[in-house]
Amino acid sequence: MWVWSKLSAIQWLDAWEERLYGNPNSVISEIKGGKSIRVEVYCEQEEEAGKIREQFGGSVRELKSRNWVAMSAPKSEPLLIRDRLVISQVPVKDGDHEGKDVLVVPPEMAFGTGDHATTSTCLRYLVDHAAELDERWSFLDIGTGSGVLAMAAKILGAGEVEGYDFDGKAVEVALRNLERNRIEGITFYEADVFEWDTDQEFEVVVANLFSSVLVEALPRISKWVSAGGRLILSGILKEQWEEVSVAAAGAGFEFLEQKKVGKWVSAMFDRKK
Ligand SMILES: C[S@@+](CC[C@H](N)C(=O)[O-])C[C@H]1O[C@@H](n2cnc3c(N)ncnc32)[C@H](O)[C@@H]1O
User: For ligand 1, which residues put their CB under 6 angstroms from it?
Assistant: First the structure.
């Protein structure tokens, strides 16, 4: 394991967070009493870390594996979604969280332990929308990361569930999480939203991706959402919302609502009938 790191002034925190959004191997820590930040990206290959140094400066060092474990230490505080779902980064005992469904998703090399605003808003939207659906609905998770949204959909009553990611490591993690949570009936696979295609339509589709990816992929995504079906988008920075909402309207979606958390926007749409 190799780590690229760079020190930066605190005023660049937002810029770094945006730049590294979606990278599960990045860590930003405040140092010097909150006046500065240390930005780190953990890489399996030295070459990968070297490329980041070429782009942003900073330094690269080899990392002892015990540091890597320490860096990814799980948070013990679970995330509660609408009094219905609990997402825990640490194992739970039978009887913990009585009356709620629990998903255990430890931090690994895939985005999606649930605590990022973009994921937690998708989870809230999913819980709310699932309560409105009575039949077993089909669900597609584009850019599944840890698989947390697909697993939540299954628990919330989805029938057929698929999730894919162009990062093979994320797919490995998602499959591990399925086993860990003893969930069956989800297909996770490696695919790129710009290459993957299907004739099948899903009743609920979620895509928590960069705005630029969403804008370009929306005409494709629209074919995979059934008429009247629900699309949940996330990972949109406030200043990119306008562009994404115009692209969604152009791809045949009717805007329902949006939620801002910090600098992130998530939104729900229905595909026009
Ligand atoms: C922000 S994470 C979201 C993970 C998870 N769905 C969640 O909500 O927590 C975005 C994920 O999309 C994947 N991704 C990015 N671009 C993609 C593409 N073109 N095709 C498929 N997956 C992509 C990334 O590898 C990453 O795992």
Answer: 22, 110-112, 118-119, 122, 141, 143-145, 148-149, 165-167, 170, 192-194, 208-209, 213, 235
